[in-house]
Amino acid sequence: MNDFNTGDNINNDIKTWSNFFSGLIWFVVGFIIIVITQIAAVIGLGVIEALESGVKPNEQEVQRLFEDGDIIGIAFFFATILILLLVVLVIKFRRKREVKEYLALNSKPINVFMKWLGVALIILLANYVCDILFDRPAMPEWVINTFKTVDYKFLYFLGIVVFAPILEEVLYRGYILRTWLESRLHPNLAIFLLSALWALTHLQYDLYDMFWIFVLGILLAYSRIRSGSLYPAICIHCSWNLFSYFLVSYYLG
Which residues, 6+ apart, have CB-to-CB distance to 38 below 8 Å? Predict the structure, then answer.
């Protein structure tokens, strides 16, 4: 039966708390994979630099590598491949479902995308107004630091604007949200909890920026549920990060 007008055919008979815990486990697994791929990229580049210079990197140099834009782009590339592969395998062989149906990879008319992009624009403007009212910097310090380290802008661009949104939407608003919709959680609580947890994974930002990530997460989840498709959420996320990319490019000249 149709639940919460989600556009998903969800049978209430399969709603169990085990689905909630399964989604929670996969949230942790996905976060660990993202962290491990970044650590692996940092170690790889650190070894290369040590071999070239003959000097072992100190603590400050290691911290610099964790904010290296090229490394972030590379890490998101490999993390995306690993997580997409795992999600597909789990859906096909563990849940024995169709990937397209489970992740709501349903095509939608252009007006659906425009509607949700319009809502995203309103939130972006609200964010901008609050930045002015609270005398916030134009861009978060972490974003500025990573952009300054970029040698290959196409790597950073692909990592931030393409790979990161696809990875996070497939994992969070695709797999985990669908799993929680098939749990005992009310859909509104599932959206709130998932958005809060997603915001907490962005530890590189302060609480103010994490709040706006939380708000964005709610929008992404509702766009997924109300449209019955994951594509609007991917489009919003890519567009949001694209705007941030161009903004920091302009800010740094």
Answer: 66, 71, 72, 75, 79
Q: Which residues contact 235 (CB under 8 A, 6 or more apart)?
A: 113, 116, 117
Torsion of CA 197, 198, 200, 204, to 10 degrees: 170
- Rounded to a whole number of angstroms, the CA Rg of the chain reads 19
Query: Which pTM was predicted?
Result: 0.92
DSSP 67: T
54: left (phi over 0), alpha (psi -120 to 50) or beta: left
Could you tell me which of 54, 38, 79 has the C-alpha nearest to residue 164? 79
| Rounded percentage of the chain residues whose pLDDT exceeds 70 | 93
CB-side neighbour CA atoms (13 Å) of 38: 19
pLDDT of 66 over the 70 cut? yes
Burial class (CB in 10 A: 0-12, 13-18, 19+), 146: buried
In order, the DSSP letters of 89-144 are: HIIIIIS---HHHHTT-----HHHHHHHHHHHHHHHHHHHHHHHHTT--SS-HHHH
